[in-house]
Amino acid sequence: xxxxxxxxxxxxxxxxxxxxxxxxxxxxxxxxxxxxxxxxxxxxxxxxxxxxxxxxxxxxxxxxxxxxxxxxxxxxxxxxxxxxxxxxxxxxxxxxxxxxxxxxxxxxxxxxxxxxxxxxxxxxxxxxxxxxxxxxxxxxxxxxxxxxxxxxxxxxxxxxxxxxxxxxxxxxxxxxxxxxxxxxxxxxxxxxxxxxxxxxxxxxxxxxxxxxxxxxxxxxxxxxxxxxxxxxxxxxxxxxxxxxxxxxxxxxxxxxxxxxxxxxxxxxxxxxxxxxxxxxxxxxxxxxxxxxxxxxxxxxxxxxxxxxxxxxxxxxxxxxxxxxxxxxxxxxxxxxxxxxxxxxxxxxxxxxxxxxxxxxxxxxxxxxxxxxxxxxxxxxxx
Length: 382
What we know:
Layout: H1 15-19, H2 29-35, E1 40-45, H3 50-63, E2 70-75, E3 80-83, H4 89-92, H5 95-101, E4 104-107, E5 115-117, E6 121-129, H6 135-149, E7 155-157, E8 163-165, E9 169-172, E10 174-178, E11 182-190, H7 195-201, E12 209-211, H8 224-227, H9 233-248, E13 255-257, H10 268-275, H11 278-281, E14 288-295, E15 304-312, E16 315-323, H12 330-340, H13 347-360, H14 365-380
Parallel strand pairs: 1-2, 1-13, 3-4
Antiparallel strand pairs: 2-6, 3-5, 6-11, 7-8, 8-9, 10-11, 12-14, 14-15, 15-16
């Protein structure tokens, strides 16, 4: 939403402050943050796109946080899986299931484990200077907010900086990025997320994958609305915003920010494009190898295949396809293995190669069927 002057529509209380600023001097959120007298800012993203919201984090870290301001950003996403900076997506989630269900994959710039986001999950990002970085304090703030609206809730912070409900169920995971002078800590808060989808997509089908990437630690999760059905995301976000304002002596009104607004956030489109690129999401994966043994045709004895690959920067560095019978001409398998080297470890590029070979054997229906069966198995692990 925009007003006639081209600036974003702000909540009541911020509009007047914005009007007092000279457009010639103050045209960005960074300038507004610098000019305000409050010690902290409360922001809420109007987007539910994971790449736009992660880009907003980057932009705030770069241009607002550097001014040594306390900032809290509230945001939510449509269904997506978010992996940590040093993680392997093939190890962490079921990519095929995600593609089938239209669930996005993203890689954040902070470390930590993999999480599932949907509109029933709240994301909180606390920006501070490096000197004032305090994950424990941020989690205690969230607990205080919950206690103020629902005193009966039994929520505590663990040594791993997670939040547990009733001492058992994880309702919040946490990660952080610490720069030279500034830092941010972000965490989730499960309100009414789809737990069936969560458990399904955060389960990798791979058994023979070897990697030094950071592994996630499984946990039993629960939604806050399962404990108290009257809790909603809006209610929780308002409570956290009020507690943040109370502790930082700032206005409790929230500024709405559109991550696509390049006037308010100059250069943010570049952040977004990088975060949604294949090179960032997949290409930043630490080197790994995969060994997969499968039967291509369960009705035909001897139709077994062993596939071994090593992948660097998301691209196939070496590949070996071993047949245990003459079920397929070994020459075709060897050529496929050779041509896969250097390609992205993804089903799309493999499908292109597989389709090219179909033209060679297009007159032999049985050979085409066998070839498709093999290629489907290869693509299924990608």
